[in-house]
Every structure is written in structure tokens, then in C-alpha cells.
Amino acid sequence: DARVTQTPRHKVTEMGQEVTMRCQPILGHNTVFWYRQTMMQGLELLAYFRNRAPLDDSGMPKDRFSAEMPDATLATLKIQPSEPRDSAVYFCASGLRLEDNEQFFGPGTRLTVL
Amino acid sequence: AQSVAQPEDQVNVAEGNPLTVKCTYSVSGNPYLFWYVQYPNRGLQFLLKYITGDNLVKGSYGFEAEFNKSQTSFHLKKPSALVSDSALYFCAVRPSTGGFKTIFGAGTRLFVKA
């Protein structure tokens, strides 16, 4: 069955290194969301796209985070440089229509920054 | 400010008993309301949503939720709990106007004992 895929599933890196997380939305879905989940902050929306165009990235620290959709089958979230406080699980979700907002989540990327 | 509250960090129930997971919200205008479930090391899975219409919404795995506009609540319920229902449950709300940002509650952990 159709699923959102995310790579890598786990990433351990050192502070200052660049981290790139990738997401393949479900084929035909035109909306993509990036979330970050931590014990302290819960689930935070970082950014979302419709038809590959960013609609809102106000939840993202602009100085180090960037999100793009190079094509309809790939969304990327990049952190440069990474910091220990970025350690979290990053989820990508896709949806068929932004208005319905039924989102399908990927398995997440668990990021640890040492 | 728009918000979602899940007043219980944890709910314990015996298998076969009914369960309720509470959610209240504060948004301007008419809300779109959702419940998601998260199993360990997995992404969130959509359970059900309320957009408009009947206040009682039925969803996946035998779950249902009741929208109460006067109490601004959207409690999740199931008549007979299963051990396999043990998971983390998130209530989410999106205002019907003013953007597509979904706000998630902090989550409620459900434990169902055999």
C-alpha cells in the first residue's frame, strides 16, 4: 500500500555538520508537511508545501534550516550547521488536499546531534 | 491564541472497558478537528476527523469522537478497549479560516491492561 517514506531512519552527527533528511510523499499527494517531535515541545510544524511551493515555514529557524521540494516525489529538510538542540524525530507527512488536512505520516528520522 | 489541550498525560483502562481520551480546543471560527494515534517508533496515523455535520464521528479501529461546540471539546471514545489500543493519542485542530496550520495537542498515553 502507498506510504510516505523517509531516509535516513536514524542519523547521528556531530555539532556543526550538515544534515539532510529526505521524504518521498505518497504519489499524487500535493501537500507535504515537516514536523519535529521532542519530549519537551511535542509535535511542532516546521513548514508545509502545496504543489511544491512553500506556503508557510514560520516554524523553522531560518538561519540554519531550509526545506525544499526539488520535484513532486522528493522533499528535503536540511540543517546547516546542526546543533545539539536539533536532536529530535523529524516527520514528513503528505496529504491529498490541504483543506481536508488528513495527513499521512512517514516513519520519521531520528536525529541525534552530539 | 489558538490551542489544543489534552488534560491527561496518561489514561489507564482495563481491556473490555470503555475508554475516553479528552481534548478541548480554543480557535477562532469553526474548527476542523482530528485524532491521530502513534505507536512506538512510528509516525502518526489518522483516526478520524470532524469537519461539519453530525457531531458524532466514527473512525478507524472502532474509535469515535463527539464534537461539542458549547464545551469546545472533541473527546475520543471507544466502547470496548483492546490491549492493542495502547499507544499515544494526539488531538489536532485547524481553524477553518486563516491558513492551514494544524495545531497538535501534547498527546495522551493510553494503557490498556489485560
Structure annotation, total helices of chain A: 0
Q: Please report the number of helical segments of chain B.
A: 0
Structural class of chain B: mainly beta
Structure classification of chain A: mainly beta
Distance between the termini of chain A: 36 Å
Fraction of residues of chain B in helices?
under 10%
Structure summary, number of beta strands of chain B: 12
Cα radius of gyration of chain A in angstroms: 13 Å
Query: Would you report the number of β strands of chain A?
Result: 11
Question: If you compute it from the alpha carbons, what radius of gyration of chain B comes out, rounded to the nearest whole angstrom?
Answer: 14 Å
For the record, give the distance between the C-alpha atoms at the N and C termini of chain B, rounded to a whole number: 41 Å
Which regions of chain B have little confidence, pLDDT < 50, spanning 5+ residues?
A: none
Report the average pLDDT across residues of chain A.
93
Oligomer: heterodimer
Helix-strand sequence of chain A = EEEEEEEEEEE
| Outline of chain B | globular
Shape of chain A: globular
User: Hey, roughly how much beta strand do the residues of chain B contain?
Assistant: over 45%
Major sheet description of chain B: 6 strands, mixed
Biggest interface goes to: A-B, 21 and 21 residues
Descriptive account of the structure:
- With 114 residues, chain A is mainly β.
- Helices cover 0% and strands 54% of the residues of chain A.
- In chain A, the strands form two sheets. In chain A, strands 2, 4, 5, 6, 9, 10 and 11 form a seven-stranded mixed beta sheet that branches.
- The radius of gyration of chain A is 13 Å and the shape is globular.
- In chain A, 37% of the residues are buried.
- Chain B is mostly beta strands.
- Chain B contains no helices and twelve strands.
- In chain B, strands 2, 5, 6, 10, 11 and 12 form a six-stranded mixed beta sheet that branches. A four-stranded antiparallel beta sheet of chain B has the order 3-9-8-7, with no helix packed on it. A two-stranded antiparallel sheet of chain B has the order 1-4.
- In chain B, strand 8 and strand 9 form a beta hairpin.
- Chain B is globular and about 45 Å long.
- Chains A and B meet through strand 5 and strand 10 of A and strand 5 and strand 6 of B.
